[in-house]
Amino acid sequence: MSDLLERLRARGWRMTSQRRVVAEVLAGEHVHLTADEVHARAAERLPEIARATVYNTLGELVSLGEVVELSTDGRAKRYDPNAHRPHQHLVCTECGTIRDVRPSGDPLAVLPDSERYGFTVSKVDVTYRGRCPSCAG
Amino acid sequence: MSDLLERLRARGWRMTSQRRVVAEVLAGEHVHLTADEVHARAAERLPEIARATVYNTLGELVSLGEVVELSTDGRAKRYDPNAHRPHQHLVCTECGTIRDVRPSGDPLAVLPDSERYGFTVSKVDVTYRGRCPSCAG
DNA sequence: TCCTACAATGGACTAAGTCTAAGTCAAGAA
DNA sequence: TTCTTGACTTAGACTTAGTCCATTGTAGGA
């Protein structure tokens, strides 16, 4: 059914009912859930699933590069299943809603060498903040 | 002694020994401390200071716009006293060291209207990630 | 079908931060 | 200077998010 499940199986990821349910929750909705929300949705289908299992599974999906971890608000981390194409995030400062966005150009390019202090810069996370249409009321 | 203390007093901020010590800790070192580190350094000078007081004071300094709160790593928030001039952050993925950097150009400009979904975008946080010279070994 | 290494469980534990009720004190008024 | 009062501080309980670990379960190969 889902590309994600296919890819995981192809990579030899051991498939269990718990892992399947977590992967399906992520693949099913293109929103940015917290670990607790993933657990709640997973538990609707598999009531005995443990919180620790959800954390373990999310951690693995992140290591495999299939899911991106966001720590936008200093509160609970959120998990973004849209890892296959590069994007940035637009966050509402009122309600916390997150949208995926694609800025034009390469955000890395604007950091001059003189500002790199010898770091090997490999990644840039850009978070645009503002009020969403409903909150701007 | 410090600009920060001056400004706070000028704004009618009620000065107590606890608040003074917290402000001095922040003004004194241009590093990015966690709340706990601020508490530890404050307690060297004022042993009875409560953790809650440090949290309250940091929260107020953030509201006043004198300090910027960073939630880079999903762990403890860090506090950046360098709020008077705009800058972004370069974070080491190994050791967590943070450096202030100034990208060229306006990071807001690269987000086309078509990607704003009706949001009133007011702020952009850019985090460059990579390995610092010591960790790149 | 049987093994066994890998995965799941649940409950205790930790870290970071918030809340609350009671006590304290800075700063303006007299 | 002393008084007054509302704002500030305190200690500790509480909450939230996440980790750890010893035990139990099971996917998938032989």
UniProtKB/TrEMBL annotation, chains A, B:
Keywords: DNA-binding, Repressor, Transcription, Transcription regulation, Zinc. Pfam families: FUR. InterPro entries: FUR, Fur_C, WH-like_DNA-bd_sf, WH_DNA-bd_sf. The keyword Transcription regulation applies. The keyword Chloroplast does not apply. Belongs to the Fur family. PANTHER family: HYDROGEN PEROXIDE SENSITIVE REPRESSOR, ZINC UPTAKE REGULATION PROTEIN. This is Fur family transcriptional regulator. It comes from Streptomyces omiyaensis.
